[in-house]
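Supplementary Text 2. Reproducibility record for the structural model of the 186-residue chain.

All settings were left at their defaults, and a single model was retained for analysis rather than an ensemble. We include the record here because the model underlies the residue-level annotations in Supplementary Table 4.
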Amino acid sequence: ARVSTDDQTLDLQIDALTAAGCERIYQEHASGKGFDRPELKQCLHALRSGDTLVVWRLDRLGRSIKDLINTVNQLEGQGVGFCSITEHLDTSTPAGKFIFHVFASLAEFERNVIRERTNAGLQSARARGRVGGRPQKLSDEDKDMICQLMRDDNNSPLRIAKRFKVSKSTVYKTVREKQAQNQPNV
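Retained model, structure tokens:
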């Protein structure tokens, strides 16, 4: 049983879980965004093969379908069933397992469609001459100057980085890239 804030009550969920015959009810006042929830971790750790994890509603376990699918698949691998009271979903039955896998397939399909649309949009933008990504912080002249300054042992990479308002790793990366450009192709 989970609610997002302390001013919300768990009574409705606890009543439904008790009526469903749950032997142990884990109660949590936390956001469902992440899985960094102590009661959820304790619950998942306590589950053994043959047990069934029961939730009042799917969104009480997690907010994203991806996280729900991963959790239910993990439970299935451990021989643990999953039941959601409100959605009448029970993966310990063939029909419940089928419905859950339909949900999983729809989620995967949606992810693939989004990926295809994103790639098509990027290709279209490239065809029109648009370049994606963050603008370069250093101009070609700045990069040449960094390389020149790095050749002088009196200059420290940190001082150079501060001068150009970049990180020290950017200074090293710039030098490596320039060296690679100047190498003849073998």
